[in-house]
Amino acid sequence: MKKLILSAAALALTAGAALADGHGVVRMGTEGAYPPYNFLNDAGEVDGFERELGDELCKRAELTCEWVTNEWDSIIPNLVSGNYDTIIAGMSITDERDEVIDFTQNYIPPEASAYVALSADADLSGVVASQTSTIQSGYVAESGATLLEFATGDEIIAAVRSGEADAAFFQGSFLEPIVEESDDLVFVGEPVPLGGGVGMGLRESDGELRAKFDAAIASMKADGTLNTMLKKWFGEDQLTF
To answer: The CATH number of the domain where 219 resides is what?
Structure first.
């Protein structure tokens, strides 16, 4: 165990050093399975809001970047281990995560999470599906309901449709287009505000890189570019800065 921890630390230090000397490529880690935040298009390339945002941030920060995909449930450990240099994957800023990694300022304002089910009288204290290792799954676990965790957002919807779960609980911006396009799903109960918005995650040792991305996000907020991008991908009703 000690060897594994030391290896992870060495990788993190190596990655940070590569960026510091100006010759490294910043590897942007994302999930690739969370539209419209991020997804893989027909060509198998990372696409979505965070791809467009990340490319613009790298341009403004004068960084050379490449994209890496990683499953959600191991996305923080693989950042710490040095497999990529940032997380840009719809990750909400929470105190618990901030104890392990650092965050930039948010690039999406705090938004409400919501329940969806097959009927308006669904039992929200019964079996509720959510994505593993999210603030939504943590909320369900503390609510008294029986938490059923899945690796992706699509799987929690499938669990509701199959009857495996009474409801699903997740970010509203992910659920809204699914509900709008379906003839069986409805929102249930009241929206639940969670988290401090969505930001980029970085290793605690990469303060210089975090500062570069912070400045780039701030410049996009200041000139209105970020608000335009948010409305493009999430609709005119999306919360903006």
So the answer is: 3.40.190.10
